[in-house]
Amino acid sequence: MSRIAYVNGRYVPRRDAMVHIEDRGFQFADGVYEVCEVRAGALVDSRRHLARLERSLSELRMTPPMGLPALLMVLRETVRRNRVRDGIVYFQVTRGVARRDFSFPTPAPEPTLVVTARSLDFTRNERTAAAGISVITVPDIRWQRVDIKSVSLLPNVLAKQEARDRGAYEAWMVDAQGFVTEGSSSNAWIITADDKVVTRPADQGILRGITRTVLMEVIAAHGLTLEERPFSTAEATAAREAFVTSASQIVMPVVRIDDKPVGTGKPGALTLALRRDFHRHAESWTK
Ligand code: PMP
After folding, report:
1. Radius of gyration of the chain, Cα coordinates, nearest whole angstrom
2. Which of 122, 205, 265, 284 is the most interior residue, by most CB within 10 Å?
């Protein structure tokens, strides 16, 4: 089946899905995006993802390409046309097409909107979670507005590639003080010996993950204590459990950090319990 993408008002076969060479997303990474999980054909936490998109756009003084209810319909239609049951929907908005000039074009061009959807192998994801993943640590070389979900992802790309090159699954970025900020495409968490669940505050050098936000409800429902504070690489390696969160991986156990085992070297029991319970707390609508 040929896959379909939505590009600026049209659903087109992927090979015909194109944007202009002077799109500011292409030339300046002047755009933002979201990735939303699709589960049993329904979008998971779409309301929160759309709200974050709106915030990212407004921080960059960009206009939304359409109202959020209309955008939600496009997301659902793209999922439907690609027959995605379990997977992800990706949506990107750029400032649009204009003659190359650094400052914002005036008048503002029509924003570019691209939506794609694809299936993910659910069982493979579960197998990965059952085994746990390895992470490496790398210096965080990103800019200071990582709270904006912009498509300017080159440092994240380099970090993920370094992980791949070193046989790991994810890279945790570390700030100048030696504290972990977040993963290249995920938020980073540890669980201490006394069962405290620790993650960095969202106002300090990380993206406020939607999975992170929802997981805080799961943590509370499990009667666990949440500590929002920075943690160092050394503390992470000495932790009882560690994991990452993102829309496509939900809660993914981390079993090695820089080649040192975390806890028993196996996925932690609390981590797996949080993973199992996640979707009872996430919002999901089919209609
Ligand atoms: N941090 C970064 C840098 C990311 O790219 C992502 C995933 N897009 C996350 C955190 C997790 O965010 P979410 O839970 O909303 O997918």
Report:
1. 19
2. 205
